[in-house]
Batch of 3 targets.
Target 1
Amino acid sequence: MTRALPEPTYRRFVAGLGTLSLRPFDLAEDVTTLHSWVTQPYARYWGLLTASVADVHAEYLRIASTAHHRAFLGEHDGRPAFLMERYDPAYDAVGRTYDVAPGDVGMHVLVGPPTAPIPGFTGAVFETIMDSLFGDPLVDRVVVEPDVRNVKIQALNERMGFRKHSIVTLPDKQAWLSFCTRDQYADAHRMNEAG
């Protein structure tokens, strides 16, 4: 008998694209898929290029064992398509680089390699993640810390309303500490829809 996967915690229909959803990461089912993503050159900033499946399993077992860091698998029409991590910055190295405020939530995102490129897909994934985070009434601000060399994600962050704060030193990288409040995201969303 096949074990049921966790139910989505968030689902959004995007006209012309389909349904994007987020569900809790399942260690037994999702590690192999994630390993196939993080070991590709485009995912170099994820820091797992040379990881084995066992290494990825160990990392996500560590995440699952904490009360302050959660991983979610994103699906596009029911197929694995992206990963989102949500974490409490107060328990993370980034929290030692600024004054963490109540309502801050940290986020990491990795989009899986497309079988066929879909225009606007990454933006729709990012909006789905931001909508899910701000759907939590306790979240006031999203915190990200992309590698300073990762200019693609910095541009996407900016498009979604993030403002760069400062370059910070983390254990594994120099990073652009950036913030996006609920209002900044709403303003950026309106501009993106208009433009």
Target 2
Amino acid sequence: MTCYDRRDLGLLLLRLGTGGVLAAHGTQKLFGWFGGHGLEGTGQFMESVGYAPGKASATAAGLAETGGGALLALGLATPAAGAAAAGAMAGAAAVHAPNGFFAQAGGYEYAATLGLAAVGLAITGPGRLSLDHALGHIFNRGWMVPAALAATAAGTAAVVGARTCRVRAKREGKQEALFEEVEEP
């Protein structure tokens, strides 16, 4: 195998793994598959963490994950697919950020990893073992990478910023404890 062949196989595996996980996550939100809560349950959760309206937020996140993940796996419209998936993961990371980095403590590790993989694929491209390559890269032009990433970054910043404002407003007037209370044995 030449290096070029190895690179294409590596990109295919990365696309299938990252895209498959993202698509599965999205179908949990949209359809309740794989133990998910569907639009109603996910919408209620989204509302509880500051994304409003909840059902619309769940739909947007589910579509970005399902669509972006499926397109990444196929290697089709790779810049837009990677950007959409990364935007959804940035929104998820914002929810988990107060818990620190590691997923075992509820942190943003998992969302960040998926988002970075999606951005990496958007920038690198899908390789020769892809629908983009088979179609002559009509949905994978060089100018599409910065355009997709910039549009997604602007939209994500607006959505996450609005969520941050809602979360702060909800906490206003509530005094947080200065010290943790420790129960005596």
Target 3
Amino acid sequence: MATKRRKLSNPLALAVMATLAQRPMHPYEIAQTLRRQGKDTSTKINYGSLYTVVQNLEKHGFVEVTDVERAGNRPERTIYGLTEAGREEMTEWMSDLMAVPAREYPIFETALSLMGVLHPDEVTRLLTERLQALEVQAASGRGALRKLYESLPRIFLVETEYQLHMVEAQAEWVRGLLEELREGSLPGVKEWRTFHETGEMPPEFQDLEDSDFKQ
């Protein structure tokens, strides 16, 4: 099942709608609520562009002005609420994201697909650095989760759990690849090494189209 093409694709727009589903707010309050509820750990939030996101949501009829607050000499604050169309869009968008696996393009996958341009020993060194960083990140994440469990119901921490599991899974995979590189048991590593040490493309790789060894 394919996901529907949406009028707005910025995940921050979805986060704004989900926040306004709680109650009407002005943009600064939306930003504060997202930060307080920890949504900045799972959604890339550019607070400088949040006002633009709100304006775009209003343009498409997903949010509307519900009030304008005036307090003494302070500037007016426009309060926005979620419209019925916005609630429908939010629900459909959330349903797509939850149910339909989307093809994503993490930059690490790009690096892996092109790692042949580096010497295997250099890749081993770099992946060792990555593994060390991942292990630190995982240990820190586990400690933070234990602390959070003391004050928050688990339902509010599932995205943090997911992030931690993804870090741990990546660390496990990198650890296995490093073992194969160090042992020389990774299929093709001998030819990969030969390419870098002689400058000649091994016959086994010459027929490969669009090889990442080719410059």
